[in-house]
Amino acid sequence: MIAYLKGKIIHKDLSSIIVENNGIGYLVNLPKTLQEKAQLNSTDSFFIYTKVREDDISLFGFASSEELDFFKTLISVNGIGPKTALEILSNDSNQIKNAIVQENAAFLSKIPGIGRKSAERLIVELKNKVQPSELQIISDSLEAKLEEVMSALIGLGYQRSEIYRVIKAAPAELTESEELITFFLKNI
Questions:
Q1: What are residue 46's DSSP bridge partners?
Q2: What pLDDT score does 132 carry?
Q3: pLDDT computed for residue 46 by the predictor
Q4: Range 88-127 burial, b when 16+ CB lie within 10 A, else e
Q5: What's the pLDDT score for residue 93?
Q6: pLDDT of residue 145
Q7: Please, which residues have CB within 8 angstroms of residue 13's CB and are 6 or more apart in sequence?
């Protein structure tokens, strides 16, 4: 199994590249965002997911191991194959994770290859496995109060992503729920 590949990009088309390594050309499928960044005749490296079937061996490349891990999480969902997962990863992974956590099926169903049922299946199967990346940015002192603040502000009709964006910018001295809510309302 190929897990990592480094080499010269010798060909590029709409959804894949050919990476030459020691005289062998490997066809690597990439998310659109990574595909657009790939430069012909440059040396690059990719974390690889190898899919082996009876009649095919396919390689899927990613810029980081985190992106590869998210790809593996996506294809663990029934009905989501590697090509569909690449379409999903052609969007901002933070937005995708937030849409899953916020149960925003309408956003997910706008992705090519994802219908309403697939979007709902993604949400049901992954909402407890995926953490929005903004949670990692919030300081430890805020984490304890975060759920209380979230519940109150969601009750007022605000979105999780909007709340995370503002609260992560809160000064460290604001540690009480009431202070955080006031800060949010003043800075929205």
A1: 5
A2: 63
A3: 96
A4: bbbbebeebbbbbbbbbbebbbebeebeeebbebbbebbe
A5: 83
A6: 65
A7: none
Residue 186 — φ and ψ, nearest 5°?
Answer: -80, -25
What is the helix, strand, coil percentage profile of the chain, to 5?
45, 20, 30
Identify whether the C-beta of residue 167 lies closer than 8 Å to the C-beta of residue 136. no
Per DSSP, 176 falls in state: S
Neighbours of 49 (CB within 10 A): 23
pTM above 0.70, yes or no: no
Residues in the chain with pLDDT values less than 70 = 132-145
Domains of the chain: 4-62 (2.40.50.140), 65-126 (1.10.150.20), 134-187 (no CATH)
The H-or-E segment that residue 12 falls in is strand 4-12
Which residue in 158, 160, 159, 182 sits closest to 170, CA to CA? Answer: 182
Strands 16-21 and 56-62, how do they pair? unpaired
Burial of residue 54, with CB atoms counted within 10 A of its CB: 0-12 exposed, 13-18 middle, 19 or more buried: exposed
> What is the distance in angstroms between the CA of the first residue and the CA of the last residue of the chain?
49
Judged on CB neighbours under 10 Å (0-12, 13-18, 19+), 171 is: exposed
Written as six digits, the tokens of 9 are 């990009």
